[in-house]
UniProtKB/TrEMBL annotation, chain A:
<feature type="compositionally biased region" description="Low complexity">
    <location>
        <begin position="1064"/>
        <end position="1090"/>
    </location>
</feature>
<dbReference type="Pfam" id="PF04388">
    <property type="entry name" value="Hamartin"/>
</dbReference>
<dbReference type="GO" id="GO:0033596">
    <property type="term" value="C:TSC1-TSC2 complex"/>
</dbReference>
<dbReference type="GO" id="GO:0008285">
    <property type="term" value="P:negative regulation of cell population proliferation"/>
</dbReference>
<feature type="compositionally biased region" description="Polar residues">
    <location>
        <begin position="1106"/>
        <end position="1123"/>
    </location>
</feature>
<protein>
    <recommendedName>
        <fullName>Hamartin</fullName>
    </recommendedName>
</protein>
<feature type="coiled-coil region">
    <location>
        <begin position="785"/>
        <end position="876"/>
    </location>
</feature>
<keyword id="KW-0175">Coiled coil</keyword>
<feature type="coiled-coil region">
    <location>
        <begin position="946"/>
        <end position="1015"/>
    </location>
</feature>
UniProtKB/TrEMBL annotation, chain B:
<dbReference type="InterPro" id="IPR043039">
    <property type="entry name" value="TBC1D7_dom2"/>
</dbReference>
<dbReference type="InterPro" id="IPR000195">
    <property type="entry name" value="Rab-GAP-TBC_dom"/>
</dbReference>
<comment type="function">
    <text>Non-catalytic component of the TSC-TBC complex, a multiprotein complex that acts as a negative regulator of the canonical mTORC1 complex, an evolutionarily conserved central nutrient sensor that stimulates anabolic reactions and macromolecule biosynthesis to promote cellular biomass generation and growth. The TSC-TBC complex acts as a GTPase-activating protein (GAP) for the small GTPase RHEB, a direct activator of the protein kinase activity of mTORC1.</text>
</comment>
<dbReference type="GO" id="GO:0005829">
    <property type="term" value="C:cytosol"/>
</dbReference>
<dbReference type="GO" id="GO:0005096">
    <property type="term" value="F:GTPase activator activity"/>
</dbReference>
<keyword id="KW-0343">GTPase activation</keyword>
<dbReference type="GO" id="GO:0005765">
    <property type="term" value="C:lysosomal membrane"/>
</dbReference>
<keyword id="KW-0472">Membrane</keyword>
<dbReference type="GO" id="GO:0031410">
    <property type="term" value="C:cytoplasmic vesicle"/>
</dbReference>
Length: 1138, 314
């Protein structure tokens, strides 16, 4: 499911999606080891022929390659052989890393088996080409299959005889091509094996016919292989031989030996080998010069060149034939590529484009393609050679014209500009006729004649033209013309010289190979030699004139189209060419139409339109290009004049040349068929139907109409492709064609042819790629070479410098030598002087020595004396020493004696003293009895003393005890004191408390006292008030009533009682008596209640008169004092009264 | 504090609500402990707690200097006080200023005036002074609390002197009362202001009588404990709380006369609530519980000149 989706995406129009799906596939391949995916993809390819699936299949890794091979070998047995083979062809051409495994796989066997058995042309051709491609890729592994391959070869060689009339001619052509290529491969790779096989195979008489018709012509085209001499059958299949060769090396080697077939031959070889300028080279040069001369013409009729080549080249498949195929729609590619060319090198444009302008923009595309670039270097080398050669102009006339046209002063410049493309072109084109010749000869004798005739005629024409041109050139430039003939001669001679070796090789080859079959092919060698001879003549002619031949053809065509201006008339031609060029675009446009119109080839209108469109695009491009090219050319010329010798320039040219070659190569493709089918063409021509063959065979068209070739192989290819694509339409067309023209190939053959062509193109493309690869490598090598050369030159410079240094050093050395001589002389003199001095000194020395001897003798004597003296001295010394020793001893003894003497004296003194002491003691002893009395006394004293002491001690003890007691007492007392203190404090506190308490009590009492006082004061004031009232009452009573005191008194009492009951109302009427009565009553009541109180009150009343004086000092309140005053006032009144 | 030291659970008791449990004990300790009583501690106790009824007589007497701090001399001092009392009574009787029918408050007031030497000739008019009326109502209230008329006289004398002390500051106290009311209850304050109850509310007499006659005696004792402790500020709070408690009634009053009616009839339960609230509020407003604040802020502010004459007279 997923895979199907991926496959869908793979076929998407968007490249990103395609890339993505490819990546996916790759991942899947990495992840799986099974074969299903490979099988699936194979099936997918087989059913759809998708190129993208091929890309994926080619990119598979290790385990899958085996599956792939398995699958392919399986399907080879099946029905879809062709697709399988195509796929195989794709794979092989991609040359994946695991391709070598095919040798060990049954697939190769299958392939060979198929080749041996297959009769269908398509699979056969495919397989054959696959094999051819495969051969150089696995040269070391192929050894085992060689025999099979040879068998295949012989089968193919004998195709016609084996399968007569089975194939159409077109197909046969392909087969021939394949066979030819195979032949070259085998011969180039395994000459010994191959030749021995041929010997063995065609030594038999029954095969002679095949040999003579098929093999021999092919053998004619190859040169002697050196391995035939140096190697053996086994050695050439050994792996050691192929170790260092890559497949493109092998291909090139193969091509190298196809020396006689210039198509196969690598171009660079000539220059590489440093051979003397080959005829081809020169031709190319000539032609180039011619071309440069007729650039405009060529430009104008770009198809001319092709046509000419078409005429000549029939089997020419240059490696780049299929480039056109590779770069599918040329018109599309052009726009991208063309801009590049001017950018890179204007020169390219000038040199290459002029040719192509009209015809094929794809050229430009090819220019840009990287494959072509590597060729540069190679060709630059070739160019170098050529340019050097051109310094000696080989065929002056044309070149002179060229010079004239371009830049007269720099003839050499011009040569490189044009020649390169031209030369290349012609290199490609030229040899073909030869081969054609052979072909025709071998295949059908009648064809050969005609072709020869054609070519010879053409050549002759060309020669004429050349002559004319020479004349013209001589006329115009006499200087050069003088040189030219000689050069021409040289060329001829060189050519002559050059060719014989070829011949020899060839003959040798022939002899070697042909020796076994001499009996069968007696006539063959002769015919061959004849042919050779003719061929040589041809060559000689052609070598010089070939280019002209082409030009001639151009001219002829020109003449044909354009009012037949003679080619010899250079100026006229120029002019004409200009005119032509102007018309080129329209021509182009018309190109496709014309053939259609003329031939009524069954093309639908659509096709035409398409073509027209295409051409229109082309023409536009051309128009754009034209100014470019012309400008480029002018500039280029200037550049040329300035930078003639520069290598870079050469390179540029080289690039240009290679590119031209490459893009020219597609053109010859058509002629390939022509070459391959001369009989057919001729038959057709004979039949008078020029366009008998359908589109694929344009050769007749080329021959007969200039227009057809003009619209170039690309157009043709387009047609092919279209026909294929529009199968049905084509059918119709074909039928139409068949109706219109009697001879019509069938659709099938056409298709087959197309596929064949496709295969062929693929094959050629592969070969071209191989070449490109090699070219790249060689470019690298040449670069390194150049670097080495530069290095060499640098080293040379260094060498010269060093030599100079050496010289200098030598001079210096000489100088030094002289100096040294002088110094030596001086030294000699000094030596002499020193020698004389030395002699004198020696004499002195001798004398001195003699004296010395004498002195020494004396010295000896003196020494002897000294020794004797010394002995004596020693003896004396010893004596002296002994004496001193003795003396010392004596002295010591003397001192000891003195000491002893002093000791003796002291002892004597002591002795005396001791004696005295003894005397005293003796006295004492005499007194001893007296002393006894004292002892008793003393004892008593002792006793008494002791007693005393005891007493004192006792006293002390008693005192101590007393003291202790006192102390205890003191402590006791102290405690008592403290206790007492505490008590005292306590007492004090209590006292204080008590004091406070009593204070309080006292206060209470005081307050009571105060109260009392207040009461008393109040009472006194009351009393005073009463007195006052009393006084008033007395006064009033005095005044009023002495008459009735009782009544008044009674009245008074009542009043007072009323007053006391009420508020104190002082009735002025109350008498003091009644008052006193009242008070008496009060006092009475007081006495009744309590005696004390009454007494006190009385006392108070009694004391009252005294009190005021006493109370006067006491602090009294203002009220009290006031009341007192009043009281006093009251008192004073009664006192006064009293 | 002795109370706190004695039992660490005291504070928890308070929190739970059984206040008097520990108070009583601590007070007993205070009273029983020494021969000399610590007056300062008693003062603190009064400010802090409600004095139990049994000890109220003794405590007040001690605090009003009727009894000395020395317990031993109580008897003697009391004898002296009785003598003084009887002397005063006798002298009044003798001067015929009073007789047996004279009502006790009247008698006490006369006695006090006599004792302090303020009694004038025109003592009948003197006694009708508003201040003396207020003082008389104090005595009247005390008569309901205690039995012994001697004690009543002395205690009422102590209150007289106390009132006499802050009498000059009464305007300040009224002002403070209004401020506090404004702070506590703006609406009521404004309302009272609007209806002109300013002058109608007998705030001065309230303060001078120490709410005697306004609040029932059972509740009044708590307030007077604080007074005995030395704080006259409690009166302000009581006044405010009265107004706030009767808020609804007061707000409904449109006339100042109605206000007076409302204020004059305070039921016993309401009185109890008022007193409790007032004490709480007083304590909230940084009463004497904060250490070092002294017995009373206002007291500290009282001019010294006022104290000295009072002492001198005492």
């Amino acid at each position: 499911m997923e895979v199907a989706e991926l496959l869908d995406r793979l076929e998407s129009n968007q490249p990103e999606i395609v890339e993505e799906s490819k990546k996916k596939f790759r991942e899947i391949f990495l992840n799986t080891k099974e074969s299903w995916l490979v099988n699936g993809l194979c099936d997918y390819y087989l059913s759809t022929s998708s190129s993208r699936s091929v890309e994926i299949l080619v990119g598979v890794r290790e385990p899958h390659d085996r599956h792939l091979f398995d699958r392919l070998s399986d399907s080879l047995k099946g029905s879809s052989k062709l697709q399988t083979l195509t796929l195989l062809g794709h794979i092989v051409r991609r040359h994946p890393a695991w391709l070598h495994k095919i040798a060990h796989h049954s697939l190769l066997k299958e392939l060979l088996k198929l080749l041996k058995v297959e009769t269908d042309i398509l699979p056969l051709m495919t397989a054959l080409l696959v094999l051819i491609v495969l051969l150089p890729m696995i040269p070391d592994l192929i050894g085992g299959y060689l025999q099979d391959i040879f068998e295949v070869f012989s089968r193919l060689a004998a195709w016609n005889t084996n399968n007569p009339n089975k194939l159409p001619e077109e197909h046969l052509l392909h087969l021939q091509v394949g066979l030819y290529t195979l032949f070259h491969r085998l011969y180039g790779m395994y000459p010994c094996n191959f030749l021995s096989y041929l010997r063995h195979e065609y030594g038999q008489i029954e095969n002679l016919g095949i040999f003579s018709h098929t093999i021999k012509p092919m053998l004619d085209t190859v040169k002697m292989h050196p391995l035939l001499v140096t190697a053996s059958k086994d050695a050439e299949t050994a792996t050691s031989r192929w170790m260092k060769m890559e497949h493109h090396d092998v291909i090139l080697e193969c091509a190298k030996f196809a020396s006689l077939d210039t198509l196969e031959r690598p171009r660079e070889e000539v220059s590489h080998q440093g051979l003397p300028p080959t005829s081809r080279k020169r031709y190319s040069l000539e032609h180039s010069s011619l071309e440069s001369a007729y650039q405009h013409q060529i430009k104008g009729n770009p198809s001319l060149n092709p046509t000419s080549s078409q005429v000549t080249q029939k089997e020419d498949w240059s490696p780049s034939i299929f480039c056109g195929m590779d770069t599918p729609p040329p018109q599309e590619v052009v726009p991208t590529s063309i801009p590049q060319t001017p950018n890179s090198q204007s020169y390219i444009v000038s040199s290459s484009v002029p040719h192509q302008e009209g015809t094929s923009p794809p050229e430009a595309a090819i220019e840009a393609t990287p494959e072509t670039t590597p060729i540069k270097v190679i060709d630059s080398l070739a160019l170098n050679v050529r340019s050097k050669m051109s310094g000696v102009p080989p065929t002056s006339p044309l070149r002179s014209i060229a010079n004239e046209i371009s830049i007269p002063n720099s003839p050499v410049h011009m040569e490189p500009t044009a020649p390169v493309p031209g030369g290349k072109e012609w290199l490609v084109a030229k040899p073909v006729p030869e081969k054609n010749g052979f072909r025709f000869d071998s295949a059908e004798t009648s064809g050969t004649v005609s072709s020869h005739l054609d070519s010879s005629q053409e050549d002759q024409e060309v020669l004429e033209i050349v002559r004319q041109g020479e004349q013209w050139s001589i006329d115009t430039q006499p200087k050069q013309s003088s040189v030219l003939p000689s050069s021409q001669r040289q060329c001829d001679s060189v050519l002559e010289e050059f060719h014989p070796p070829h011949m020899d090789d060839y003959e040798e080859c022939e002899q070697e190979s042909g020796s076994p079959c001499t009996s069968g092919g007696l006539h063959m060698p002769t015919s061959r030699s004849m042919r050779e001879f003719a061929h040589r003549v041809h060559q000689q002619h052609r070598q010089r004139c070939y280019s002209q031949c082409t030009t001639d053809t151009e001219r002829s065509y020109l003449a044909g189209f354009s009012t037949g201006s003679s080619p010899g008339e250079g100026s006229a031609a120029l002019l004409h060419s200009r005119v032509q060029r102007a018309n080129s675009c329209p021509d182009m446009k018309r190109g496709p139409v014309l053939p259609g119109a003329e031939a009524n080839i069954g093309r639908t209108l659509e096709e035409k339109e398409e073509l027209e469109d295409l051409e229109g695009a082309l023409s536009n491009l051309d128009v754009n290009e034209q100014p470019h090219t012309t400008n480029g050319r002018e500039e280029e010329n200037d550049q040329l004049s300035q930078e003639f010798a520069s290598v870079t320039f050469m390179k540029q040219m080289a690039t240009a040349s290679t590119q031209t070659v490459d893009h020219w190569s597609p053109l010859p493709y058509e002629h390939l068929f022509l070459g391959a089918f001369p009989p057919v063409e001729h038959a057709q021509t004979h039949n008078g139907e020029m366009k008998a063959s359908t589109a694929p065979s344009p050769a007749p068209l080329c021959h007969h109409t200039e227009l057809f070739p003009r619209y170039s192989p690309y157009a043709m290819l387009d047609k092919y492709i279209e026909t294929v694509i529009q199968g049905h339409g084509k059918d119709d067309r074909d039928t139409k064609k068949a109706n219109v023209q009697g001879l019509e190939s069938e659709l099938k053959t056409v298709k087959e042819q197309l596929t064949l062509l496709n295969i062929q193109l693929q094959f050629e493309r592969h070969r071209r790629e191989a070449h490109a690869e090699r070219n790249r490598r060689l470019l690298g090598k040449s670069r390194s070479n150049r670097a080495l050369e530069e290095h060499n030159s640098a080293l040379r410079d260094q060498l010269s410098l060093l030599q100079k240094d050496i010289e200098n050093l030598y001079n210096e050395r000489e100088k030094k030598k002289k100096e040294v001589q002088i110094t030596e002389q001086q030294l000699q003199e000094t030596i002499n002087y020193w020698q004389s001095q030395c002699n004198t000194h020696q004499k002195d020395i001798k004398e001195l020595r003699r004296k010395n001897e004498l002195l020494e003798h004396e010295l000896k004597q003196a020494k002897e004396k000294a020794t004797t003296n010394m002995k004596e001295l020693q003896q004396v010394k010893s004596v002296f020493f002994e004496v001193t020793n003795e003396m010392q001893h004596a002295v010591a003894e003397a001192s000891a004696g003195q000491q002893l003497r002093s000791n003796l004296e002291e002892l004597q003194k002591e002795l005396i003293l001791m004696g005295e002491l003894q005397q005293k003691y003796r006295d004492r002893f005499s007194q001893l009895p007296l002393l006894r009395h004292y002892e008793e006394e003393q004892a008593h004293l002792h006793h008494s003393y002791r007693e005393e002491l005891k007493g004192v001690n006792e006293m002390l003890e008693s005192r101590n005890s007393l003291l202790e007691a006192a102390k205890a007492r003191i402590i006791e007392l102290d405690s008592v004191v403290t206790r007492r203190d505490m008590i005292i404090a306590d007492q004090k506190r209590i006292l204080k408390q008590v004091k406070e308490e009593y204070q309080k009590k006292l206060e209470a009492v005081e307050s009571k006292c105060d109260t009392h006082r207040a009461i008393r004061q109040r009472m006194e004031s009351h009393v005073l008030e009463l007195y006052h009232q009393l006084d008033i009452a007395e006064k009033t009573s005095k005044v009023k009533g002495s008459r009735s005191p009782d009544s008044s008194a009674a009245h008074e009492v009542s009043v007072i009682s009323a007053g006391s009951a009420d508020k104190p109302s002082f009735s002025p009427h109350s008498s003091p008596l009644s008052e006193s009565l009242g008070s008496a009553e009060g006092s009475l009541s007081g006495i009744l209640s309590g005696k004390d109180v009454g007494m006190k009150n009385l006392q108070v009343i009694v004391d009252q008169p005294e009190q005021p004086s006493a109370d006067q000092q006491q602090p009294v309140t203002s009220q009290q004092s006031a009341s007192m005053d009043i009281a006093a006032a009251d008192n004073s009144i009664p006192e006064e009264e009293g | 504090m002795a109370a706190d030291e004695r039992n660490f659970r005291a504070s928890y008791y308070e929190k739970v609500g059984c206040r008097s449990v520990e108070e009583k004990k601590s007070l007993e300790i205070l009273l029983k402990d020494n021969k000399t009583l610590d007056k300062v501690k008693l003062q603190q106790f009064c400010l802090r707690f409600t004095v139990p009824g049994i000890y109220r007589n003794l405590v007040w007497k001690v605090l009003f200097d009727v009894l000395p701090i020395h317990v031993d001399s109580h008897k003697f001092v009391m004898e002296q006080r009785e003598q003084e009392y009887s002397d005063l009574v006798h002298s009044l009787h003798f001067m015929r200023m009073a007789n047996d029918q004279t009502p006790k408050p009247h008698l006490f007031l006369l006695m006090w005036l006599l004792e302090t030497g303020k009694l004038k000739y025109s003592w009948n008019t003197q006694i009708n002074n508003t201040l003396y009326q207020s003082l008389r109502s104090i005595s009247q209230s005390l008569l309901n609390v205690f039995d012994n008329s001697v004690d009543i006289y002395w205690i009422s004398k102590g209150f007289f002197q106390f009132v006499d002390k802050f009498y000059n500051d009464v305007p300040k106290l009224t002002e403070y009362t209004w401020n506090l009311l404004e702070k506590e209850d703006q609406i009521l304050f404004n309302h009272l202001l609007d209806i002109g109850a300013w002058n109608v509310i007998p705030l001065q007499s309230w303060l001078c009588s120490c709410f005697a006659g306004v609040i029932s005696e059972s509740s009044l004792g708590k307030v007077w404990d604080k007074l005995a402790g030395g704080s006259c500020k409690i009166l302000v709070f009581v006044a405010v709380v009265i107004l706030r408690t009767l808020r609804r009634n007061l707000l409904s009053c449109k006339m100042s006369d109605n206000v007076l009616n409302c204020l004059n009839n305070i039921p016993e339960e309401t009185a109890e609530i008022i007193v409790n609230k007032a004490i709480e509020m007083w304590q909230q407003y940084g009463s004497l519980l904060t250490p070092g604040a002294g017995p009373d802020n206002l007291k500290a502010h009282l001019p010294v000149s006022r104290n000295k004459p009072a002492q001198g007279t005492a």
